[in-house]
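Issue 218. Parser rejects a valid record. Input:
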Amino acid sequence: MGTNLRALAATVTTVGVLTTALLGAPPAAGAPAAPGLAPRETGAAAAGATVAETAMAETAMAGTAVAGTGRGNGTVGGDLLAGHGIVRPAGIDPPPKTEASAYVVADAETGAVLAAKDPHGHYLPASTLKTLTAVTLIPRLDKNRKIKPSEEACNVEGSAVGIVPEPIYKVDDLMRALLMVSGNDAAIALAEANGGVKKTLADMNKEARKLQAYDTVAKTPNGLDAPGQRSSAYDLALIARAGLAIPDFREYISTKVAKFPAPKEDPKKKKKKKRGDDSEASESPAPAYYEMANHNRLLGRYKGMLGVKNGWTSKALGSFVGAARRDGHTILVVIMHHPGGFWDEVAKLLDWGFAARSKAAPVGRLVGPAPDPKPSSSPLAVRPSPTPGAAKARGEDPASTGATTPLLIGGGVLVLLALGAYGLRRRRRTPGDAAG
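Output the parser choked on:
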């Protein structure tokens, strides 16, 4: 068996096909996403395949990873992304090692996936799911709208920016808190502004389907662990790429320090303090804002770092979505299910991505959004006639446009009336009818 595997690997390398190191750990949890689009089962079922079976399957898939829309024979992004292990291009140095169970390195401009490990594995996303919240809500909410959060929003567990139930926050403020300091409370307040958590989750899952992020199911707007919630390294790359196309999203993720509104102190409750000479003096009023700093440790530390989002829970472990831009090119790195500190590993993956971008054949593609369904036209539909003035304004002759439609309809009505009258006369002449 070992000899066959070595021969197979040699054959793959010789013909210049992408080589695959089968080193991936099984995903934490998951289930098939959308029928026909789920790349493969995750978890124990997938882990049962032998190394030889996986190697032969990936060899058979060579050459289809970047065809057409990038879906290959069923895997979104290309069939080489279906496996659990590391997939990388031949002929260049392999990507640096990472303890993450899954990752994706991709070129954001071209969509080329340069390397990956278990890219479609289903994992808990933690706060990286807030990228989907932002991509969904930024276009839907006026950023200058003032919001009064509910008590429920103000008391959410986990990381919080510290909001209070007062109408002092703009959507813009809460979006910064969402993406800069991972405010779970800000996420709920934004969901409330969008019509409620239930509606926002429906919108988020609809947005995920639109982006072809079929591995993703949102159960919370802030990424706190919930039964059935999941995403994948590939999907988070799709979502981040969509976010980078939104100017406000780019601004939020790249801001290092920002002011956040704070409730003004009630003058009646203002505390007094004593000076050294026991004379009383009023305490200086608190500012109407405080500063918050971005949690992304690579901002200002890694050359060209744009930002994006990190996350962590005890079940999800560490996750991170990062983007950096150099020489007119943006590299995306996504890691999921990392047991420890990942910042240096991410920096090395970014370095590798910039070096490999112009040398490596892609192992897959970040697909574009799914096209909007075209409305089906009914054969019974009648196009309304434009007014003569409107037709004339467009340079059309009203006599040659839909202005004749009422005449056709009217003529049809006359024909129907005539046929009805003829049928009535025939009925009156039918033998056997009672005489009147």
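Fixed in the parser; the record now loads. The longest helix spans residues 405-428.
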